[in-house]
Amino acid sequence: PAIMDLDRDKSVASQMKGDDDVDDGPPLKEDEKYQKYFNMLKMGLPMGAVKNAMTRDGLDPAIMDLDRDKSVASQMKGDDDVDDGPPLKEDEKYQKYFNMLKMGLPMGAVKNAMTRDGLDPAIMDLD
What we know:
Order of helices and strands: HHHHHH
Structural class: mainly alpha
Strand content: under 5%
Radius of gyration: 19 Å
Number of strands: 0
Distance between the termini: 16 Å
Helix content: 40-55%
Largest sheet: none
Number of helices: 6
Shape: elongated
């Protein structure tokens, strides 16, 4: 995953694991449970209306944001992964920069320091 997609409260190691998972199940767009909603999109309904229909039917509307060519099961496996390291904000590599923010330095100064040290400053934009 891209550095922008990382979660500050999870370790870098757990978030950078490869996608070696075997895809099990039909692709999302062909899954019978969700096919109705993809048909709604094909008919021209806006994504917001489709997500409202999913909520009404008791389904998670975030499913529509997943990759349509992979199964739901393979994309939802990541939620159960064991986090095997410190949160990003406590990682030795980045702790210095989060401490700079705590001390009141402006975000721009912290990002400049990260760039100077050869790190991607986008990591500071994570929530």
